[in-house]
């Protein structure tokens, strides 16, 4: 039983300490309803979004530039609009395959 516990603890530690060098994300503009688990807010339930939600997806040395525009016009020729710009830059990563390759090269 003790060996099984040590094996399980080592497996969990290995999973938690492994890195892949990716930064996960998505961009969303509009209306959405989510029923279940929301990873952005880290909670279960029903969530309703009306607007812009952005999370970047990139690797090291990556640059992202997003522009969201929304305009509305009424019958009385009134016009309104919104514009959101999202810029993101990721430099060198501290985990992942690039770091692993550098460590292998240093050992040679």
Can you describe what's shown?
With 108 residues, this protein is α+β, with helices and mostly antiparallel strands. It has one domain. 25% of the residues lie in helices and 44% in strands. It is built from two helices and four strands, in the order H-E-E-E-E-H.
Write the layout of secondary structure elements.
Elements: H1 2-17, E1 27-38, E2 43-54, E3 62-73, E4 79-90, H2 97-107
Antiparallel strand pairs: 1-2, 3-4
Overall spatial form: flat
Main sheet? 2 strands, antiparallel
Category from helices, strands and their pairing: alpha+beta
The N- and C-terminal alpha carbons lie at a distance of: 40 Å
Structural domains: how many: 1
Radius of gyration: 22 Å
As laid out across the biggest beta sheet, the strand order is: 1-2
- Report the average pLDDT across residues: 76
The total of helices stands at 2
Helix content class: 25-40%
Strand content: 35-45%
Low-confidence stretches: none
Tags for this entry?
108 residues, alpha+beta
Task: Quickly describe the structure.
It contains 2 helices and 4 strands, in the order H-E-E-E-E-H. With 108 residues, the chain is an alpha+beta fold. Strands 1-2 form a two-stranded antiparallel sheet. The protein has a two-stranded antiparallel sheet with strand order 3-4.
